[in-house]
Amino acid sequence: MKIAVCIKRVPDSETRVKTAADGKSLDDAGVKFILNPYDEFAVEEALQRKEKAGAGEVVVLALGGPAGQETIRTALAMGADRGILLQTDAVPPDAFVTAQAIAAELKAGGPWDLVFFGKMAIDDYNGAVGPMVAELLDLPCVTAVSHLAIEGATVTADREIEGAVEVVRCALPAVLTTDKGINEPRYPALKGIMAAKKKPLDVKAVALAAGVIEVLEMTPPPARKEGKIVGEGATAVPELVRLLREEAKVL
Amino acid sequence: MKPSRHQAPLPLDRLILEAGTAGAGDTMELDVCIVGGGPAGLACAIELARLGKADGTELAIGVLEKAEALGEHNLSGAVVNPRALRELFPDLTDADFPFRRPVDHEAVYLLTSGSQIRLPTPPTMQNHGNYVASICEIVRWLGTKAEALGVNVFTGFPAASLLVDGRTVTGVRTQASGLDRDGKPTSSYSAPNDLSARVTALAEGTRGTLSQAYLQWQGVGSENPQIFALGVKEIWETRKPLDRIIHTLGWPLPADAFGGSFCYPLEPNLVALGIVVGLDYSDAALDIHVLLQRLKLHPLFREYLDGGELVEWGAKTIPEGGYYALPARRSGEGVVILGDAAGFVDVPSLKGIHYALQSGIYAARAIFQALKAGAPTAERLAAYDRMVDGSYIEKDLKKTRNMRLAFKDGFYVGGVKAGLMTLTGGKLLGGKIAVHADADTERTITPSVATPGAPRGSDRLVVSKVDAVFKSGNSTRDTIPSHLIVGTDITKEVADFYSHVCPAGVYEQVDGHLRVNAPNCVDCKATDVLGPRWTPREGGSGPKYKRM
Amino acid sequence: MTTILAVCEQRDGVLRKVSSEVVTGARRIADALGAEVEALVLGSAPASGSDLLGSFGADRVVTLTADGFGAYAPEGYAKAVAERAKGAAVVVCAATAQGKDLAPRIAARLGTGLAADVTEVTAEGGALVAVRPVYAGKALLRVKLTGQPAVLSLRPNVFTPVQRPKAGAAQTVAVPLSAGRVTVKEIKAAEAGALDVAEAPIVISGGRGLKEPANFKILEDLAHAFGGRAAVGASRAVVDAGWRPHADQVGQTGKTVSPTLYVAVGISGAIQHLAGMRTSKVIVAINKDKDAPIFKVADYGLVGDLFEIVPALTAAVKSLA
Lengths: 251, 548, 321
Fold this sequence. Notes:
The complex is a heterotrimer of chains A (251), B (548) and C (321). Helix content of chain B is 27%, strand content 24%.
């Protein structure tokens, strides 16, 4: 089974977000970077599919600055076979530009049985690159997969929708984006960490298009409006209910 | 109330295992296994890798670090003496080192509850030529250097036991992960790993579990028992810039407690502030986290902190026994003990980082020679002890050998004694002052004389223990099994005592019983010194210090 | 006249409420650009409720039908919308589960980028400027969309539907498309029974102030009063004490919730708890300690005995129903 997994290096979810001097991006002083948590599910799923098939290759692909190599090594330590870093100065704000670069690399390295992505990155919250790459590669795609079954060349995937679970079917080869619940990502074993250093990691420079999304500024969210003590004791309840109905409009 | 009466002993049967004992999943062989990815461990790894390279020998060196990433369990003031880094990296200059800023101005104050008296800076606290730094940043920097030299750094792998063959240490076994509250494997269970190594270097930091186990197992004593202080530290973003390092003595510490506070600018508007108190205090209700909260309200500090924001909080103990508490030997068959784990800290100057680095360098040299000779025996590894004993580490610690110990007689008498010692370079009052281990020191439980409690929680400068733990970056899963071994006869008074000892709110006294909130633990080790014994928890759990 | 396409959403032949938000957002853009709004519904037949889209500002309501379009058909829908979007200035979707899947496909088919999960959109000098939360809402990004067409998805529950009556002329167009290679086989309804804390639009959480596990009944009574829309959550302290299951825990080491209404009862407000609920739209706190930190984040606070206040609130809510 030839499987590609596209991953991203993102700031840890506990990061204190401060705007950099340029007013548009994250000040990364002291920020801890990790493998995007949704991509961990993707790497794990790829490894499990390869293990189930008995043979194959799991290739990890990332787009970003040179530090992306560390992130790729984490995936290699989990068990992926080789890695490719499409090196660029800054990750473009336009997911389509990223998708074009990734699709080109995948096309050159294909054909693939499966291409996995995490459902979204926890920094930009776009969730777009996966399905866009699928369109560019003209492959069927299912997003936000929380349960996956593959029988022969048939994919049956569960995805959570509002108040229900949608069961979707398509055929291989396919692009899938993974959601929480699909599996439990393994921790890299000691031997895996050592072995990762020797696995092939290609770094290729990429030229990127300009794209159609231009970042104007990044700001902190507006502070929550000052709250108020409505009153004391059960006698204040009617006033609370009135405010919730008329002012907050939640009842 | 004597804390030691209620303490469990070190679980040696778990900490020392015969090599080959069943229970390990994976095994790995290394030339050198270094337990602890702090300054001592990483300096050892770097020097060793370099000696190997220069000699054309490839050494398999592994550093085991219990935190999820390097630096996350390291905490210090810190003002660092650069000499050891200069020796480790002779081709680099001070400008290349991960320091924040050189020390320009410094001030020492004696505090009272409402004001301060400037004191002349004692000679032991002269910091000109030293640098304000974050130990987390130093460790991360050392980590990249180590990895560039081919050292394997394994983060998220705590060493839980020593593997031995007769008297020889043959390696370590790591802690399992993915157990539930009752100790049963869950779906994310990961078995322990055995790492066998020709030499194991224990660089666990303060109150290292395996270091204690080794010394106890082999009956290696010291002239005085090791004693400890607890430091609780915060980092604040401030509106008002700070341009000097500050040390204080006196308020809010009670007269019989040894310690003081520090305040260092990492940047003019990013300040590291903390309080350090010896754990031999007599009032069972003393709460060091609470003392820090009160300290912040003093006009001297309030001036800087008002309008600012607390960005990080943490705590760690510091070995304070000095020269007389060093173990008789810090090497053995297949093993060496480095840094804080050995007790290389000079309390009067508040320095330990450069001693840790230096001990790592010496250990590497001794290990390398021993491996080359094909025999990492106690005899050959003793060269490490000789190097330390002939170095400035020993010289510095010997000069101040009684200064901290003098303070067991109280702040003012101690102060006079300390002054005399400094003036005479240790010649006067140079005979060893005997002390008890902290746990053997009696505590008074005097409910009528309440230690001033926590300041009003609604003051913006004050942080509760629960919120403080959040600010340490600790998000340990709630279902983790407890790693703390509670002793016997835990009365209401003992439970209260524990709740004050622990800065992270692990212990609470509820209806006369002890409640243990193990996931709160930030691994400061105060509990191991005075209360329930600490054992390693699954890798990656605990605090996530960023710039502490 | 330039067109703003508002991609609506139906399930089982009934238009979903979020569609009126999409049309409202599209109308706002159309007014700024001097354009028309075309509401687009995809299905096997016109969806019920489509006739109301005109009142929210749709100049036309176009239903694209095909045999395989009854259930969501990712490829078929994407092809149909992209085709319809030729010549349009803007395509607006909802950032619902379906929209998050569909919008990127539409954008890629059109060879352009996407601004996803947008909370504000304006026109500045003829170009669209959108605001979207990033870093889990810890920052807001303002972006300019320079593509033609511009494709965006709107965060649900933000663009409150506004009456802006327009013609809403209905049209049905059969499109010669199949569902595509990805088909929905089945929709499994969520299990009947307790609503998950992370899903419920209303969450009532209890802390140590409840004093005993049995007292959680008063919170369950309050939850029932909201008629199946509320779930009961718990602070870490009561979960640790074994009173409530970990699945109900709200906080940093539990679940992160973002309901429309969060009621914190007997909870002091430790930061690790706030980390799990601070993006709730409206926060109400009930606590006997007026200095409890929870009152600093609550929009409305009641100081007093929760054992008196909560039953009174339950009665009041019941009487509204």
